[in-house]
Write a structure and sequence with these properties.
heterodimer, A: alpha+beta, two-stranded antiparallel sheet, B: alpha+beta, 6-stranded mixed β-sheet, 10 strands, about 20% helix
Chain lengths: ~220, ~240
Amino acid sequence: MTAAAAAPPAPAVPAQARERAREADADPGGYRRLSVREFDAMFSAGILTEGEKVELVVGIIVQKKGTGSVHDYILGHLLTLLTFAVGKRHTIRGQSPIVIPEDSKPEPDIWISKMGPDAHYGETANAKDIALVVEVADSSIDYDRGTKLGLYAEAGIPEYWIVDLKERLLECYTAPAPERKAYDTKHTYRDGQTFSHALVGEIVLAEVLGNEAASEQ
Amino acid sequence: MTSPTREHDCACGLRKNLPTMSTATLNSPGVPAVEPVAQVQSPKVLTVSETSAATGPQLWRCDVATYERMIGEGLLDGFRGELIDGYITTEMPAGDKHAYIVEMATDLLKARPAGAYAVASQYPVVLDEVSRPEPDVWVARGPKSRYREAVPRAEDLLLVIEVADSALATDRTVKLGLYARAAVPEYWILNVAERQLERHTSPQADGTYAERRVYGFGESVGSREESLKGEVYGEVTVAALFE
């Protein structure tokens, strides 16, 4: 990644201010926040196009960050692993949007539905149907642990994984507390560990993270 | 002083690159509510630690043409907002006195005999490719019919006024930077709480005004002892604005 070389541009409004704005009943100004319906209307009107890498997070249109080749490799790899694991029992998607009413439409790196492949025909999956969301994090780790975690917890998504590429570990968040925008339980699995999961069976961290040493040779 | 520049992420899908603009600081915590009177203000540039900018996402921006298209499509109906540095923003809710003072200032300026000027309140102006604010009051080169087809652009503006109650910090930072960079020759902030008129003149390319003078309740702008741009608005007594 070369992006770290220059001073990173600051977003116009700090995350805390956006969060505060959202929590206040009266809109104290700042960004015009959109509903999912308005966001979709921007695509219908051709203001936004399918080629644009944007998602709606608490009413704010954000650019999805460009990801590194390691991120893309691990994401593809994990998607394959999980697809084999859930088979035809659950719908699984990579970088596909989910709707979190009323003001969010993120595109998680991976999500697994509570339902089978036929359930979401012709519509965007709703957060209430989601069993597990995964984000593969490189430079985005703070955002994934902060804003994204709050978003998924508030939506009541039962389980959220963050694959931390830098530290080579997997954080598994369960027991969402929507009113606090937090998860009550967090397990951390490191390289070399294995854990058993109700939905996807046995997960071997070394498999998820790929063989760093081998790839460097 | 830190240069208020902001790199634009070209991955945003806009058809053309947006110009490099200042870092907006709308409602940012830590912007001082009151600052020393004599100090020239510059837009506050947020640091990485304040924003977790290194890991946060880039927010979507659009240009004036896209913003106007959104208005045309009815996508922004029922909200009063502005395009600032490519960001679609909402207005701060105004206090009770705000609308009244906007009216007073507009009436005062419209009452001037100079028919060569156009005066409007809360009507958009286009400052550059990515900024289309709606100042509380503006005075532009006349005649008014010039703006029948298109809203005023930066070079048409002679004076912009913001009536500041809840949004004082924004008016002194984000808006000031915006108007100064657009070379709007004169910018007034009507400070409702202090009943003062802050007058900023001599805009600089770096987004500041070189001169700032505060007029108290008993004072007048454009009085005879000031050989300023009195021909635009004549003498305006601060008391008349706030009474």
